[in-house]
């Protein structure tokens, strides 16, 4: 699910039209050390992307606000947990899209 959807904009290791997943993950890791906080904040934010609640305002200036995606909260929690668990700097060889 993550690979099919998020990766169209968020390449895992390089930033093209949106910050890379490595950048986002590092940023969120710094802000939320606990997995439950990380997952709760990210899934809620992606459900309803808003400048006021963004923790990556520089990215919005650079790329514009992320568009709204039609995911339910439960799927987003799964995706966020996956992002939390995955070290993208080691993952990018041989991943499937
Ligand atoms: C159509 C392109 C696009 C898709 C698809 C997309 N994103 Fe984004 N995303 C962006 C852009 C552009 C930004 C940077 C601007 C911003 O933060 O809003 C961003 C920022 C983010 C942020 C940073 C939030 C913050 O605090 O500002 C998170 C987290 C995120 N995306 C997660 C996801 C996840 C998870 C998915 C898949 C379910 C996804 N994105 C799919 C374009 C996309």
TrEMBL record:
Say which species the protein is native to: Sulfurimonas gotlandica (strain DSM 19862 / JCM 16533 / GD1)
Q: Which PROSITE patterns match?
A: CYTC
List where the protein spans the membrane: none
Q: Where is the Cytochrome c domain?
A: 1-87
Q: Give the UniProt keywords, A-Z.
A: Heme, Iron, Metal-binding
Q: What is this protein called?
A: Cytochrome c, class I
Q: Which GO terms describe its molecular function?
A: electron transfer activity; heme binding; metal ion binding
Q: Known InterPro entries for this protein? A: Cyt_c-like_dom (IPR009056), Cyt_c-like_dom_sf (IPR036909)
Has keyword Metal-binding?
yes
């Amino acid at each position: 699910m993550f690979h099919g959807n998020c990766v169209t904009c968020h390449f895992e290791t390089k930033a093209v039209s949106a910050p890379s997943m490595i950048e986002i993950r590092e940023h969120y890791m710094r802000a939320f050390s606990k997995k439950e906080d990380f997952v709760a904040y990210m899934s809620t934010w992606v459900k309803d992307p808003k400048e006021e609640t963004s923790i990556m305002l520089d990215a919005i200036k650079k790329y514009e606000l992320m568009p709204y995606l039609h995911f339910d909260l439960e799927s987003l929690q799964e995706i966020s947990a996956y992002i939390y668990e995955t070290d993208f700097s080691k993952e990018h060889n041989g991943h499937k899209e």
